[in-house]
Amino acid sequence: MRPLTWDEYYEKFDTWSESTRAQYVSRLSNVGDHSQIADIANRLYNQGASDKLIRMACDAGIRFTAEDVYLIEFSVSPEVLQMAKDTIDTRAARRKQKKANKEAFWTGAAETMFFDTLIDDLFHKKGG
After folding, report:
1. Is residue 1 included in any domain, yes or no?
2. At a CB cut-off of 8 Å and minimum separation 6, what does 27 contact?
3. Distance, CA of 70 to CA of 91 (rounded, Å)
4. Long-range contacts made by residues 87-91, C-beta under 8 angstroms, separation at least 24?
5. Which residues pair with residue 4 across a beta bridge?
6. Which value, to the nearest 10 degrees, does the dihedral of the CA atoms of residues 43, 44, 45, 48 take?
7. Is there a single domain that holds both residue 104 and residue 119?
8. Nearest partner of 74 among 46, 102, 97, 94, judged by Cα
9. How many domains does the chain have?
10. Which of 59, 67, 78, 106 has its C-alpha lying 20 to 30 A from 124's C-alpha?
């Protein structure tokens, strides 16, 4: 059987039957980016094929995001799910969360200042 590139597999995925989709995972010569892999693993409806795809990706050095792991949670075995979780770049995830927290803080601070000023203006109070 001729090997398939990830681009060929991903492009033709929706035209194949469920059994063909699962069988052709074994023919992949490479894998795509993390979000495409998670999407396909979720849509395979065959845990064995999903496991194989995620294992291939992990072996190829693909790093998944927390969103990817959430997407494949019920599509793969617990062991393979843990493999995917282990690839998450926790430093990047923490930086992203820290930035979101900072933005939320300053948004909240700005809203509080706005309402404080509005109430003071409504009741003709002077700041200070």
Report:
1. no
2. 1, 2, 3, 4, 9
3. 18
4. 87/58, 87/62, 87/63, 88/63, 88/64, 89/63
5. 28
6. -140
7. yes
8. 46
9. 2
10. 106
Q: How far is CA 34 from the centre of its chain?
A: 8
Cβ–Cβ under 8 Å, residues 71 and 38: yes
What is the pTM for the complete model shown?
0.70
How does DSSP classify residue 55?
H
pLDDT digits (tens, 9 = 90+) for 7-49: 999 999 999 999 999 999 999 999 999 999 999 999 999 999 9
Looking at the fold, whether 103 and 57 belong to one and the same domain comes out as: no
**Could you give the residue ranges of the DSSP H alpha helices within 34-123?**
34-43, 47-59, 66-72, 78-86, 90-122
Better-scored residue on pLDDT, 93 or 50:
50
Query: Tokens for 55?
Result: 């294992």
Domain carrying residue 17:
6-88
**CB within 8 Å of 73: residues ≥ 6 apart:** 81
The C-alpha atoms of residue 84 and residue 88 are separated, in whole angstroms, by: 7
The whole-angstrom separation of Cα 59 and Cα 82 is 14
